[in-house]
Design goal:
Bound molecules: flavin-adenine dinucleotide
Number of domains: 3
CATH topology of the largest domain: Gyrase A, domain 2
CATH architecture of the largest domain: 2-Layer Sandwich
Distance between the termini: 42 Å
Radius of gyration: 24 Å
Number of strands: 7
CATH class of the largest domain: Alpha Beta
Strand content: 5-15%
């Protein structure tokens, strides 16, 4: 992450300005507010604003006149009940706004989550920075031979060096051309190309930035998909940091999310039957399970 001294000073200034409020605040989230957490080589994520806390979830669930908080243990039980039974709207009462700096190919996966409000840095209006994601050598892996959407062994030696050279050279050449196209020619009096067109040649590993606002229910959905091992590493690292932030913000809700979503497994009706038969001591194989090959493979991966 490369923040300029001015940007760091702006963050410090925001963190040193204190407001008084009647609204609920979360001590864990106050500690996170505005701080930039580095991600990948030039990326960052930071919380710009938030609304609500664990008690706000209970307040909404009980449709209370006041804070709606009972004993901490009662609130924890209620939050776990809500999460367990997919009673999701109380979680939508909490909101969070992030500032994210991320490579465009990560942004393409991220933007598929349609339930957020987004405002992105405009490359029509502003000039893009010369910042490109170049994977660390340990993340430079070959195509997986078992998973079409995954990575295999890490590239080594000359092969890895060649890939890194290509990535760097292509990025720098594309950016040089981008600058050339933008720059007016003083000798000939020719105008530079419009920013909205010159950006066309920038590769998908160039960094963009956005403000991204979402409610807690939909953020949990995002985290379940993107903090998962099946998600691409480059988006997963963002999701993992967001998970840590959410844990500090709404610890009871996050605990319930970890238990009933992140660490949970959904079981099909067929799989439930197989588990019951196994518990009774029956030997169930793929052939007599009633499952497809793929279903059986995933079942065995989970349950042995
Ligand atoms: C590991 C992985 C691999 C993927 N691979 C591909 C791929 O190869 N190609 C590809 O195109 N995408 C791919 N995706 C993206 C995926 O298909 C979803 O688009 C993405 O995860 C967003 O999920 P979502 O629609 O549930 O989320 P959101 O857009 O946040 O929506 C949340 C929920 O709101 C509801 N919702 C939102 N908008 C609508 C709507 N318009 N109509 C009905 N219900 C709505 C749905 O219930 C939805 O689940 C992949 C995602 C993952 C995690």
């Amino acid at each position: 992450m490369s923040l300029t001294p001015d940007q760091l000073a702006e963050i410090d200034a925001q963190r040193s300005t204190h407001q008084t409020t009647l609204r609920a605040t979360s001590a864990g989230m106050e500690a996170r507010l505005y701080q930039a957490h580095p991600v990948l080589d030039h990326g960052l994520i930071r919380v710009i604003d938030y609304m609500g806390d664990d008690a706000a979830i209970c307040q909404a669930a009980r449709v209370s006149y006041g804070r709606g908080t009972k004993a901490v243990s009662d609130d924890r039980g209620l939050i776990r009940y809500l999460m367990r039974h997919w009673h999701s709207t109380p979680f939508e009462m909490c909101e969070v706004k992030f500032h994210v700096k991320l490579p465009i190919f990560v942004a393409r996966q991220w933007i598929r989550h349609r339930t957020a409000n987004v405002n992105e840095y405009s490359a029509r209006y502003s000039v893009m920075d010369r910042e490109f994601y170049i994977p660390a050598p340990e993340h430079l892996a070959a195509q997986s031979v078992v998973n079409n959407q995954g990575r295999g062994q890490v590239l080594q030696g000359a092969e890895a060096a060649r890939v890194l050279d290509l990535l760097r050279e292509d990025a720098m050449r594309a950016y040089d051309h981008y600058e050339d196209m933008l720059t007016p020619d003083a000798d000939t009096g020719k105008l530079g190309l419009a920013r909205e067109l010159a950006r066309m040649n920038l590769p998908a590993n160039v960094y963009t930035q956005w403000y991204w606002k979402i409610d807690l229910h939909n953020l949990f959905h995002f985290l379940r998909l993107r903090a998962d091992v099946h998600a691409q590493y480059e988006i997963r690292v963002y999701a993992q940091i967001m998970g840590d932030i959410v844990k500090d913000w709404v610890p009871q809700a996050y605990e319930a999310f970890e238990d009933y979503r992140l660490g949970a497994v959904s079981v099909s009706a067929k799989a439930k039957e197989v588990l019951k038969r196994r518990l009774k001591g029956e030997i169930v194989t793929e052939a007599n399970s009633g499952m497809s090959k793929g279903e059986w493979r995933e079942f065995v991966e989970e349950w042995g």
